[in-house]
Amino acid sequence: MNPVPPPPPRRPGRPQRPDNAAVRGQLLDLATDLFAARGVAATTISHIAQQAGVTPAMVHYYFKSRDQLIDAVVLERIVPVIGFVWSSVPLAEGAARIPAPDPAAAARAFIADIVGRLVQCAAQRPWLPSLWLHEVVNEGGQLRERVLRHLPSDRLHAFAGLIADSQRQGAITPGVEPRLVFLSILGLTLLPLATSSLWRRVLQGDAQAQSIDTQTIAAHAIAMLTGGLFSPSAPSGR
């Protein structure tokens, strides 16, 4: 798997020059962090300026309006993540068919790759899980419409086709709905990442639970998606 391009490095401290591209990147990082922590609706230009140690006029130098700033967060911080996560799903003619002789192995490989890419992005960008859940998934999220127009519907359909084709060949459980598999991936990755402080608190007496990291979450998601909760040899109880 090709490594995801790392996010721009953080540059702490007060911005010095209004014409410095690094300052713009710092302001964009701070805005993204605040959007994830406070919510887009509750974050003003003044909040971002205060966090950066500059005046609101400095923020407006780079982003003429709040809408322009929000668009920049979507285009420069979120869209690259979407592109990376989906870049492994093929779109060539006939790509929606999982190749024989082992469709199950091919389906598992695509699922594992998407999970790995998504968790890798979230590990490098701690703001991603909460921002996505609060501002894209949540009804009324301020970023929903801006982000949805950048989702690669062709690759989403191709991925669902890969799952459906494998299912027709008997490699995937009949009860699985192929079009919902990616939503299951999101639920098994971004949700535990976004709520880590909550479930660590609930399980505070469990030392092993406190040591759960992003790789453990990725492995759990892959196991649930490709093997299910129960072992094939487990008794059915009937």
Notes on the protein architecture:
This protein is mainly alpha-helical and 238 residues long. The chain has twelve helices and no strands. α1 packs across α2, α1 crosses α4 and α5 runs parallel beside α9. It is globular. About 3% of the residues have low confidence.
Short overview:
The protein is mainly α and 238 residues long. The protein is built from 12 helices and no strands.
Keywords:
single chain; 238 residues; mainly alpha; Tetracycline Repressor, domain 2; 12 helices; globular
User: Count of DSSP helices?
Assistant: 12
**Looking at the structure, what is the overall shape?**
globular
Straight-line distance between termini: 43 Å
Which fold name fills CATH's third level, the topology?
A: Tetracycline Repressor, domain 2
CATH class: Mainly Alpha
Determine Rg (CA atoms, Å): 21 Å
Q: Please give the share of residues in helix.
A: 55-70%
The mean pLDDT is 86
The CATH homologous superfamily is named Tetracycline Repressor, domain 2
| Oligomerization state | single chain
Got a strand count? 0
Instruction: Give the biggest sheet.
Output: none
H and E order: HHHHHHHHHHHH
Name the CATH architecture: Orthogonal Bundle
Structural class: mainly alpha
Relative strand content: under 5%
Question: What is the total domain count?
Answer: 1
SSE topology:
Elements: H1 21-38, H2 45-52, H3 56-62, H4 66-86, H5 103-124, H6 128-137, H7 144-148, H8 153-168, H9 181-194, H10 196-202, H11 207-210, H12 214-226
